[in-house]
Amino acid sequence: MADYSGDPSEFKVYWFARDLVASSYGSFATKETETLRQLSDQLERELDGRGLIQETDLEIKKEQIRDTITGAVNRTYGGDISKRYRQTEDLAERVIRRIEEEHDIRELRIAIDAVVRTSEILDTAPSFGKGEIVDIVDETLQDDSGALDPSKAYDALYNVDFEGEAYQLGAQREPLIDYVYEEMREFRADPHIEDREIARIISGIVQEYERRAGQSRASTAGNVLETALQHIFDQFGVPASGNPAHFGDLEIDNMVDGSDGSIGFSCKRTLRERFRQSLSREAEIGVDEVWFVSLLMADVSKEKLQDISNDGSRIYVPRDSFVWNRYSTDDNLSYTLRPADHFIRDVVEFTGVSSDL
DNA sequence: TGCAAATCGGGGAGGCCCCT
DNA sequence: AGGGGCCTCCCCGATTTGCA
Fold it and tell me: Which Gene3D superfamilies does the record cross-reference, listed alphabetically (predicted)?
């Protein structure tokens, strides 16, 4: 064990913030923002209005906080105690337990303001929308003469993913910098906060911010690819079903159905494990084959290629990848492993749909 | 021991149900 | 009939497990 201080009292702002947003405690901060705002204001008035809080007052204050938190949500649902109330009760208990002295209430205030502000920032940070996706796809598909090049379809998906990541990260970081700057100025002017504490508090806020921002990036990344894939099909006049379809536990991002055959598409950043769920289920999905597109090669192992091959499906990878280099000559995999630059042409050929190619 | 596979943890989206 | 509550799914990165 490393010899560092693990005293949780050192990180109260962080833990208050963590508990307030945790989904296991009902995602209180994102759903009961107004209650939190009022609680913060009320605590501020009370803290400023007097000197040191007496111990009995502290106990009263803790119960007020508990009641405010639990009072914000309905207790029952369908005659039973609602799950949400139970989660909120857990939250209140944890918050109360961390309050041991007056200063902890100040830390709670700071945490409340931080999580509320973080939600605002994440809500208003410009997300990577349809417009940006379309622009990048179009720019990638165009050759020197301005004509659309179907061999660039995979590159377009890759660029959208790559640019989207950078874009969103930047969009999320700038307002964070503004917020941290503002907070630091306030903390410096606050006689209750020592210099070193500023670093402690700020790091807690930022740590929690990035955790949430990262989750949010994860959940939007998939939609970006779905949108891009559809736009690519549109650009080449390939009639695609458009929206993703769900088949129990598996999702097919798009489908193309033609006179000669039908394909379900699964387009992912990485293959992970979930791709196996779509194997052997073509009949259920209502397509002849499932074609995978993986942007990153990290998960494309020979074993997985074999599984996809046994399923009679295909996966598209870039020609300049080592995966292609190493396995494209393997006779067993020749049907399964395909070069990314053939993607659109293969779709048209396999399904027999009319297109602008 | 080192890599691949599997699982975990968690916020958000979306859809459905049923309460109020 | 509007919306809160709940469920299931997505994705990702991180962690754990499994296996040559």
Answer: 3.40.91.80
